[in-house]
Amino acid sequence: MIEAGITISADVILEDLVAPNANVIFLNTSDYDNVSKRCEWHFDDGTIVKNCDELVEHVYTEAGCYEPFLIVMNRDLPECRDTAYLDACVKVDNASKLEIPNVFSPNGDGINDFFQVKARTLRTFSGIIVNRWGRTVYEWTNWEDYEAGWDGKLDGGTEASPGVYFYIIKAEGMDEALYDEQGAFHLMRE
Question: Who has the most CB within 10 Å: 68, 70, 71, 120?
Answer without folding.
Answer: 70
